Amino acid sequence: MLKEKLGTEKCFRTAWGKLITEDEAYTQINRQIAAVCANLFQVMRIFEPDWEKRTEAICEIANMMNMAVAGTPEDQKAYVDMSLYEAFNIPELCEKSSWLGGITGDSGDEWENMAGRVIQFTRDRVEKELDTCPWDIVGSELCNMTTSMFTANFDLASSNGTENEVALNMCQARGCGNKHCRVVAERRDKYGLPKQEWLEHMQQPVDPIHDTPRERMVKEGQCLRNGQYTQAFGEETSLEEAYHWVAQMGWVWSVQFPMMAIRDMAPDDDEFLRIFRIVFATAGKNQFIEPFAKEGLRQHLGVPHWVDDNDGRLLGSYIMYMLDVQQVPYQMERWTEDETWIRVNTEDFTARYEMAPLDELVDAYEAQWNGAAKTLVSPEWSCVIEGRDDEEMLIKVIRLEDLRMV
Amino acid sequence: MLFKDDKTARLDAQTIRQSVGWYRWTHDLVEVTGADALDVLQKIYVSDLSKVPAGKTKYTAMLNEDGEIIDDVIVMHMEEGKYWISTLYGPRLEPWVQAHTEGEDIAFRLITYDWDMFAIQGPDSPAAMAQLTEKPVADMKRFAVAPNTIGGIPVYIHRSGFTGEDGFEVYCAPADTPAVTTAIDKAVTAAGGREIYTLEVYVRSIPMEKGFALKQDFKGLNPFECGLGWSVDLEKDFIGKEATLAIKESPRFRMAGLVFDRESTEDISIWERVYLYGVEAGRCAQAIYGYTVDQNIGFATLRADIPDGARVTVGPNGSPATVCKKVFC
Question: How far is A76 from chain B (nearest CA, A)?
Fold first, then answer.
């Protein structure tokens, strides 16, 4: 008997008809957000040459914003009860304390395709080891910043008010070139450790670490390996749920939070935007400078051979692909060899997480895609985004003479 | 994750197996009362609870309409018309029951925060209990529950546990927890035991060695596919019975044990894929080190036709393992 129909899998179709699977799209969005974060951190390094100053600034803001999510101290305890203890079904398995931050952190890591494991999970010590991290291209400032976010989670989970009981150290970091990322939380009273300042969270822990040998390291998170993430107490998150969470929250922690501090490092808003756009334009130009990068994109999107190298739809289809990957809805207005017009709801584009709109994403992508137009297609082509202050915007790939090209 | 060379975890496991250990083991507890309580519980759970008199308890399972286990619990018949359900998923029980009842006289109360619970487990647990409670408990049968006192503090004693060893559970009001903790520690220490520190030892490693699973290990399985057929009373009605009858005739899966070759299992998370000759043949619910058997072991949901002794690989790095019964010692 022949099959009567083919199987179905979740995917989207590129402008040229090639199917991109959910796995591929999910992998791509994590790396794409990391790339935007990496560009943003270059902006930061231009405005603040002192590593300690800029790292401390982003740590402070990220911690503050994480705490703010939970509201007032009373709200924060309720938030903890609801999101941690009750969500995990074993409300009093151990006394309420910061150790539960280890489980929270594990969920977030796996949802963002950071592949790893909880090595140890006891009342006095939590050790989490990662074998991969999509954000490992950004740099050590981000690794430090994440410790300030963990601090917030641990503060929220703490049993003594809102100050946590642990010494928290990212003693290895892929962003620093280590084999693993490793975060260890050790109870301060048990280990006789002092409370830490923002820049003191990358020290070695007291107890020895467990180093997973290379042959047992993993390359993908649980969502890709197994189609779901299951935390220690059996709660499951599907790949689909994890993907949608990343499409919202990935932007918030790794772009929105540091953006707030980095804007303050610039002398004024105009200067911030000037440098910001230059950095993203440069990134865009470099994206497709090599012929094999263009060839790779054509193959990935399934661009037919009859589409000429100087056809703006090459960039148009790349932008459509990127919007699909990022789960941003859009409508096609024009799709000819002379122009691509893509209509997007402005809030969909900027406010991936509704509570935290990122207007800078318009500047970032306009600059980057415009830069990419020069190398992916040719300098005859540009990308402009019109109507950013309106309800809907138009992303246009058009032929345009630009006498002041950045 | 537990490793062979973890001395604290090994000592914790040895204490439970060879002596007596205590640990805090509070989890969700739901009180069910009302004239129709028994009738409703009979419909929800697969076992015949009418045979459980006051003062006795019963391990049983809750199924969905497809006959798949969605929770496994201990129903404790505390007194006439009053049941406690010991579960890890208390808040989900009431909505489930409400969706499957109409107008019955039944009341639910989540009492998780009203009762702290301690486990005292191991062969020397009767000796520890003899020094702990005012009324003797040595004659209590397994799955019996009775009121008692510790230093004048009212408690319930349940002769049960999740370790495969002789053991007791002590329920007390949270306000009495400090005094009860001190008394338990003193009694257990006097009996040659100690407090158990490693969560994964008493939640996973020790139970798994004896074939005791958590709810997530039963994912998608019917009791007849995971060795719990004995708990099912097919003479009565319950949610999922029709599907259960079909599965009993033709099981789709089997819950098996796995013994791993490698010395550690860092690349095996919960619900990792299992392969037979490279073809996916099931999932590994979880792997852990067992200090009594001194091996990395796991539970797996496999195709029903895969026999004990089959060689499989698990996870992204092809960790080799042998299929076996799910009781390891």
Answer: 19
